[in-house]
């Protein structure tokens, strides 16, 4: 049989008029244009506040804010994606339908991620989608009027295309199959050749990604994010440089520091609690409530180190703060939006569990939710935890819930107390606990019908999510008071560390009241306050009391120093670095004198210090052949 020529043609077996053919061609040509407009309008909406006051013509007008050169770059991507789908499906109407649904889904993902987390979706977030899907069921999805209008017109276009589109590729044959496969190979080669161009293109504004999505195009910016997936060696990296840094660090470590451990009480029990979404808004700005939120935490002034903890994430991404606290590594040296628990954790993963486990502590991890969240079931084993208590093996006791979905802090702390009471008398215990009580989703879907907030805000506008959150935070303070009251009376020396992982995602109007301006208008250094949570390192025995603002990567070394246990060379390096740069924030750092610098404006001496830190971290996390294990472990 004579093979038909590969081409886009009208359906075989039917007579298509010239007008019908023209309509089909116009529909095909219009597809990438229509989808580009729909995607960009939805993306623009995701960054807007108070949608009820925005005219729809402003949504359409937002398309004119994209420079022409970026429109062209985006259109090439939209055309390429459609081309691939046509090669796969052959029938244009099916290809366009899948094309429209696919682009709509990935755009709505960003829309709702911004709504729930306050930060844009990024390409690397795909690796954390399992955990995200697990908690998203506790949020309420709403579709505002403007979004409904866009989705309606988009659906109408796709339906019209599906009904009236008559074009398709030629019939299947060996020749046609070879042509399609050849086209895919050519497309792949073009994509590979384009990677260097993407690498040399202007970078993504990692501190305001949604702004780039709006001004440079969603798909184009997503594609640019691929350049951040791999972790490159730091400038000047070599095994010799690692040894030089560690040798210099040994010289800088004073004899006083080296002998301090021998003069300190070493705790028999170390309890470290990462409190979900715990923030101290009373110390942040103009919080007007009818009652104090964290009175007990604020009252601690004896045997305690406390202050603001600068964390690497806002509104979500719990495991990023957790990773920094447990390993001493900094998220700032990784690709933006990455989740190390999903990507980079090696076996073994050196950190607090391994350090304390090597000094006769039994490391136990606790989390009253799914063990698979953020890959913890695998990560904790690699970190050296002997046991992991999750929702799957929690048991029937200590299961009280303040809200419908999440165990209360009080019941989790009761379980910690029970574990202490059940251990052997001379056993040393390191417990790391991640709470769930204050987790996002501050509406009836998560709270349950019976939950009533007991904190009221004194603003003209109502902020029910904020009132719910503040009520939960107040209960966290009460539960923490009960925990410390119990251990204050026990004979065994005990250290309790507690810190928040990130701010909650609440109403934009509430944040504007709190901060005195819109959160989205904060400059890089101004925005650092939104990445702060409280931290406490408390002991039930005499210890130094001081206030100190630090970043989360230093929390572990600060805890080990106060505990008087042996530090690794790496943790000692961090302790020394903290004296010069106590805060490594999000896109900015703060020195010992309180001076803030953006990463683009760092003095040379601080660039050198951060480069040394990055070199050691790379050796710790990514070196395959010459890892300096002795620097990250204790004898």
Automatic annotation (TrEMBL):
Topology of this chain in the membrane: Multi-pass membrane protein
Annotated signal peptide: none
Membrane-spanning residues: 21-45, 70-89, 96-114, 146-165, 177-198
Membrane is among the record's keywords: yes
InterPro entries associated with the record: Alkaline_phosphatase_core_sf (IPR017850), OpgB/LTA_synthase_biosynth (IPR050448), Sulfatase_N (IPR000917)
Highest taxon of source: Bacteria
Pfam families for this protein: Sulfatase (PF00884)
Coiled-coil stretches noted in the UniProt entry, renumbered to this chain: none
Name this protein carries in UniProt: LTA synthase family protein
Organism: Blautia intestinihominis
